[in-house]
Every structure is written in C-alpha cells, then in structure tokens.
Amino acid sequence: MNSEKDRKAEVEAYESTFRLYRQRSYNEVMVACLDVMNNQPENRLLPKYHLLRAMAIAGKKDRTNYVKSLQEVLIRFPGTEEAKEAKRLLGLLDEDESPKGEEKGTEEEESDEKGKAAEGEEEEKEDDRPKGDYVVKEDMNHYFAILIPNRGAKMNELKAKVSDFNGNYFSDKTLKVTNSFIDSDSQILLVRTFKNKSEGMSYLNAFGTNEDELGGLNDQGHDAFVITSKNFATLFKTKDIQGYIDFFQENYNE
Fold first, then answer.
1. How confident is the prediction for the chain on average, in pLDDT?
2. At 225, is the secondary structure helix, strand, or coil?
C-alpha cells in the first residue's frame, strides 16, 4: 500500500473529526474517535484521537470521564505531545480543585468523612449500574445498531456482509459500518449516519426483512434498534443496554 497515501487519508479523516469538534458536535466526535480507537490500532494519529475524545467529553461537561480520558492519554502515550497536553490539562483541573484559605479538619472530622465515604462506596456497590437518561429527538442524526455476542463473533465477516447490503440497497447514502465493544458479553455493530428517525427506521425495517443477504445476522434474535447520536453517547457511557431497548420499544415501535 502507498504509505504516503495512507498518511494523507489519516490526516484528512482526523481533520474532518476535528472540524466536528469545532462545530461542538461532541457526540459525533466521540463516536468517530471510538471507531478509530477500536478498529485502527495502527493509525499514526491515535494519540490525537484519544486526546480529542477527552476534549469532546469535556465539552459534554462530564468531569469524571474527562479526567479518566486524560489519564489514559498519559498512560498509553508517554512522551508524546498529546501526553504533555493531557498533563497540562490535568494540572489545570487540580488547580481548580485545590482549597483556598480553608483550614484542615480535625482528625475526628477526617475520620468521620472517611467513614461516610466508605458507607457511600458500599451503597454504590449495591446500586444497579447507571441508568441512561435517554431523550426523544426525531430530527437528530440516528445510527442503526445491532448487539452481537462476543463469543464466536466473526465481526469482520459480519461488517462485510452489512457493507454489501448497504451498497446494494442504500448506495445513495454514505454509510459507515463500525463496531465497538459495549461490555464483556457484547459488542455493537453500528451503521451511521441517518439524518433523522424516519431514515433510521426505514433502514431497520429493510435490514430485518432481507434474510437472503443478511441471513446468519438478522435471523439470530439479536437486539437491533436505531438510536440518536446523543443517546448512543449516553448508552456507551452507562452501558444501560436494557434501559435503551425499553426506551426504543416505547418510543419507536409505532
């Protein structure tokens, strides 16, 4: 393969994703970055995608995951410019959190606070995993998604089958087929992007009825649905799969 041509394509793809960030399309940015992170481990710009994803998370006002993402850049890409920038940004966050003119509490107060924290941790362990705060946005960009069990999945073959289906029946649209691990049991095969709910549902219906070309995928009882870019970001963060399936059945199956 032409190395220079590959490099140029990588740069153009990154610049396109960065433009989405400049437009504050943070959900689209996070999905695009995850696509590269999951499917292009040899991408020369991988550190930039990790940092850009962190910046998109910051744009969503998610401080906890912003910190985690910056720390991941430090750990995975030491010595890079991206790691230096992540360290600088973490330093700014530390400055924001540092106490100003506050006196330290007594040992008894500190012990009491630790006790409360421990109790909180126990309560958190007893809680179910976070629930997604899903919202209906019919005119927002939608993705098609189908849950695939990790065990025995030949994902490259499945993606090729879906790409062929898209080429035969949806050649008028520029659709991208990717996959991302959602938890230890499943991964999501994603087709994007549809401009609204109606387009996404039309694709879902066509996908579900074509067993000639999609047999072995759409006839296995896998959960399939359409989801907005915003709700997908929420789903990926919370892993609340059943919560979204319930939401989908209530709001999309008319």
1. 83
2. strand
Q: How far is CA 180 from the centre of its chain?
A: 8
Q: Are 193 and 166 in contact (CB under 8 A)?
A: no
- Give strand ranges (E) for the chain: 142-149, 176-181, 186-194, 224-228
Q: Read off the amino acid at residue 12.
A: E
Bond before 193 cis per omega within 30 degrees: yes
Where, residue-wise, is CATH 1.25.40.10 in the chain?
3-97
For residue 186, what is the DSSP state?
E
User: CATH says 142-251 is which class?
Assistant: alpha beta
Please check whether residue 229 is in contact with residue 143, taking contact to mean a CB–CB distance below 8 angstroms. Answer: yes
Structure-block tokens of residue 118: 């421990």
Please tell me the predicted confidence (pLDDT) of residue 44: 92
Is it the case that residue 245 has pLDDT exceeding 90?
yes
Report the C-alpha gap between 145 and 179 in whole angstroms: 9
Q: 161, 220 in Cβ contact below 8 A?
A: no
Of 100-109, 199-208, 219-228, 241-250, the range with the lowest mean pLDDT is: 100-109
**Model's pTM, two decimal places?**
0.61
The superfamily in CATH containing domain 3-97 is: Tetratricopeptide repeat domain (1.25.40.10)
